[in-house]
Amino acid sequence: MEQQKRYGHFDDQHREYVITDPQTPWPWINYLGNEDFFSLISNTAGGYSFYKDAKFRRITRYRYNNVPMDNGGRYFYIKDGDTVWNPGWKPCKTPLDFYECRHGMSYTRITGRKNGVEASVLFFVPLKKWCEVQKLTLTNNSSDTKQLKLFSFEEWCLWNAATDMENFQRNFSTGEVEIEGSTIYHKTEYRERRNHYAFYHVNTEIQGFDTDRETFVGLYNEFADPQAVMEGKPRNSHAHGWSPIASHYIEVTLQPGESKDFVFLLGYIENEQDEKFEAPQVINKKKAHALIAELDTTEKVDKAFAELCEYWDALLNIYKVHTGNDKIDRMVNIWNQYQCMVTFNFSRSASFFESGVGRGMGFRDSNQDLVGFVHQIPPRARQRIIDIASTQFPDGGCYHQYQPLTKRGNNDIGGGFNDDPCWLIFGTVAYIKETGDFSILDEMVPFDNQPGSEVTLFEHLKISMDHVIKNLGPHMLPLIGRADWNDCLNLNCFSWDPNESFQTTENVSEGTKAESLMIAGLFVVTGKDYVALCKKIGKADEAARMQQAVDEMIEAVKKHGWDGEWYLRAYDFYGRKIGSNECEEAKIFIESQGWCTMAEIGAEDGMVAKSLDSCKKYLECEHGMVLNNPAFTKYIYEYGEISSYPEGYKENAGIFCHNNPWVIIGECIAGRGNDAWSHYAKILPSYVEEKYQTLHKVEPYVNCQMVAGKDAARPGEGKNSWLTGTAAWMWLTVSQYILGVKPQYDGLQIDPCLPDTANDYTVVRQFREAEYTITVHPNGHQKGVKQIVLDGSAIDGTIIPYTPGNHTVEVTM
Ligand code: BGC
Predict the structure, then answer these.
(1) Which atom of ligand 1 is nearest to the CA of 488?
(2) Around Cβ 186, how many Cβ atoms within 10 Å?
(3) Which residues contact 627 (CB under 8 A, 6 or more apart)?
(4) In the beta sheet, which residues pair with residue 148?
(5) How far apart are alpha carbons 185 and 277 in whole angstroms?
(6) Among candidate residues 706, 579, 698, the one with its CA nearest the CA of residue 651
(7) How far apart are CA 207 and CA 280, in angstroms?
(8) How far apart are the first and last CA of the chain?
(9) Which letter does DSSP use for residue 699 in this model?
(10) Is the CB of 362 under 6 A from ligand 1?
(11) Inter-axis angle of helices 517-536 and 590-598, to 10 degrees?
(12) Residue 82: exposed, middle, or buried by beta-carbon count in 10 A (0-12, 13-18, 19+)?
């Protein structure tokens, strides 16, 4: 095995990833904030902040895909004699005597040392507050008195991140600031339709400031050598238009051994329309003053930080495993759950691969994300379900995406993705099983957010199922519409125009022939869930009606969806097979194998086992399972975007980590624990971390959307980290199927599927008002529970009936 350089390591005790070399193969980032105010921060302090919506309320500016990469952030410049350095190495890149970045649960601590001075900055967003705290601690470890010149730096974004990058004829004239004591206020466009402003404050007297970028940096200089810093002289500039910034200048004297804290605060404020100004043209700063007063001392900041840590302690106490294998425990107990929270918050909007301007919240994406998150904060998942359902159309179709600030469907992309409706059932059922809260089904929820159109959420679920049944094709399989889960399999699109988007171009027709086996499997899985739900709430007729539809779908798949060794992927616009041995390329696809095996379609005829074997034989490689095989080597007009990618990347035979768990769950349901485990470990970040930091490139503590497949130029190279449905699916896989602790309406079902080498392990699971300590003794078995002893008495079956209180459970396989 090629020896790979390491850039960091896990610190499980502190729930941190510790980066020890700033020159990581790609910026390794973290997320700050849990509800309204958010920041992205790289290991060199790059990134930006926004309020709720990365497009419409961007607070600080960031330049994506720039030279150098990761350009712009919150920078502290320390001028010590002639040496200027930054605690996070960038942007000056002055070699440091010591560097460390610790990414933790919603916080990041970056420490640098140079010439006897240590600068350590703790970045976090306090709970329920609209600000980012940057607590800088400067320590003089030398034996000389140090006279330091400290400059802070933030660059304001003019609110709308999209127009900020394009509409310069307007932008360059709109910027406005106010300066009051140690606070710099960003009030661009506040005079007209905006009633929000931002500020950057420090809790000490300042000796100067700058608010105009070119004056501070110099037109021919860079972030690496801003003129004001290099000369050690702030300009006290007042921005009028151009590019407003915020920089404080502080002179610091440190005796040997002395240490000083500075609390910097980047805040966001909204005012009522009639309380906007305290004097003509002067912003009303009352709320800013109040926020500052809450965090103006080290003690207050430390308390807010302790609260954040307690918040995460509580969240991560809900599901804890002890297997004795650090690589599993740290992913299950820390990083996988953390990534689930982040994807729940952001959907696919803002990462270092998603610019925050393109996509809002996805209908299917958010439903999947909430399944990874629902055990953490169920009320937020509940609200999310209502928000999502409110963007559905009366015929059961739905907006593919919505904008988080307005919660309105996104017209640019529209609807017509025919898998979308099923995901609403997937999300809602997971919520009810976790909470036992059936009342959500009675919530009145509008269509397309139109007041007066409200029906119960249950009605929404019903029309979701009906949407599939009403849109069947010639083989009685679901019509694919614009696309199913695979956005890039565009069977009704037909584009020769490079200026067209595959996803939004007018379909040649809605398509009456192109059918999807992925939706067929998804329909059977969610249909079974829907039937069980109907029975549970006493809707026997509806249950029977849908059971029949599910049975018919199973028959259709067996008859028209089986290729001999695996499930077909689709039928195209002309009714020709896709993902068949008869095809020239892409003979087999992963999505339909995953969904049809999870649905157990044709298990009795050996289809499931054959399909899973085919995944091993044709899709698996060293780094995971590829999406399709063989890769497309040319563009196929009838298939669309999927064939536009080079071999081995993205949807064209990349390892799309999102759908590997579908097959793994299929393996678990089939009881093949060894195979499930070997697939799972291949894409488990902690295993990859150990082997491939350089090759993998992206953060080793979270999953990425795609790893280059075996046909790629650099197999194993990861891309698009953080915001991916992979997080929720990895969580579902390990928590419910491998470790086998699965919420059901009436209790917790225990049904693990393990490699035959698995040792005894213990899961502590908080569930509603109860806590279960569950110890599993696998005894070399991959599947099959022999006996469950609850609080000393053996029970029948695999479901522990729910009762509040603390319980111990012994499981023998
Ligand atoms: C999208 C998903 C989609 C997947 C596969 C992701 O980028 O967010 O909605 O299912 O790609 O195309």
Answers:
(1) 12
(2) 30
(3) 486, 589, 590, 591, 619, 651, 652, 653, 654, 655, 656, 659, 709
(4) 80, 252
(5) 13
(6) 706
(7) 28
(8) 36
(9) -
(10) yes
(11) 20
(12) exposed
- Pairing relationship of beta strands 770-777 and 805-812 according to DSSP bridges: parallel
640 lines ligand 1 (CB under 6 A): no
Q: 476 CA distance to ligand 1 centroid (A)?
A: 25
Please check the confidence at residue 107 and state whether its pLDDT lies above 60: yes
Q: Is 647 in the pocket of ligand 1 (CB under 6 A)?
A: no
Q: What angle do CA 779, 748, 787 make, to 5 degrees?
A: 35
The answer to whether the CB of 32 falls within 8 A of the CB of 108 is: yes
Using only C-alpha atoms, the chain has a radius of gyration, in whole angstroms, of 28
For the chain, percent helix, then strand, then coil, each to nearest 5? 30, 30, 40
CB 354 near ligand 1, within 6 Å: no
How far, in Å, from the CA of 705 to the mean position of ligand 1?
Answer: 9
Tell me the two tokens of residue 520: 């067929």
| Ligand 1 centroid from CA 748, angstroms | 31
**516, amino acid identity:** S
Dump pLDDT digits (tens) for 762-808.
999 999 999 999 999 999 999 999 999 999 999 999 999 999 999 99
Rounded Cα distance, 150 and 148, in Å: 6
Q: How confident is the model at residue 406 (pLDDT cuts 50, 70, 90)?
A: confident
Q: Is the CB of 420 under 6 A from ligand 1?
A: no
**Rounded to the nearest 10 degrees, what angle do helices 378-389 and 336-346 cross at?**
40
User: Which atom of ligand 1 lies at the shortest distance from residue 362's CA?
Assistant: 9
pLDDT at 31 over 70: yes
Going by CA atoms, what residue is nearest to atom 9 of ligand 1?
Answer: 365
Backbone phi, psi, residue 586, to 5°: 45, 60
Burial grade of 588 (CB within 10 A; 0-12, 13-18, 19 or more): buried
Q: Per-residue DSSP letters for 275-332? A: GSEEETTEE--HHHHHHHHHT-SHHHHHHHHHHHHHHHHHHHTSEEEE-S-HHHHHII
Mean pLDDT of the chain: 96
- Closest C-alpha to 202, from 153, 254, 268: 153
Give catalytic status of residue 497 as yes or no: no
Q: Is 365 in the pocket of ligand 1 (CB under 6 A)?
A: yes
Nearest atom in ligand 1 to the alpha carbon of residue 365 is 9
Query: Which pairs from 12-17 meet CB under 8 Å and 24+ separation?
Result: 12/326, 12/329, 12/330, 12/334, 14/102, 14/104, 15/104, 15/105, 15/312, 15/316, 15/334, 16/102, 16/103, 16/104, 17/102, 17/103, 17/335, 17/699, 17/700, 17/701
Ligand 1 pocket test target in 595, 628, 652, 658 with most atoms within 8 Å of CB = 658
Q: How far apart are CA 72 and CA 59, in angstroms?
A: 13
Q: Which of 53, 164, 261, 487 is catalytic?
A: 487
Structure tokens at 172: 């360059």
532: CA distance to ligand 1 center in Å? 28
In angstroms, the CA 749 to CA 797 distance is 9
- What tokens appear for 722 in the block? 């953080």
| DSSP structure string for 336-382 | HHHHHHHHHHHTTSBSSSSBSSS--EEHHHHHHHHHHHTTT-HHHHH
Within 10 Å of residue 498's Cβ, how many Cβ atoms? 6
| pLDDT tens figures, 626-665 | 999 999 999 999 999 999 999 999 999 999 999 999 999 9
Ligand 1 site, residue 400, Cβ cutoff 6 A: no
> Residue 486 Cα, ligand 1 centroid: separation in angstroms?
6
Is 507's pLDDT higher than 70?
A: no
Tell me the three state secondary structure of residue 208: strand
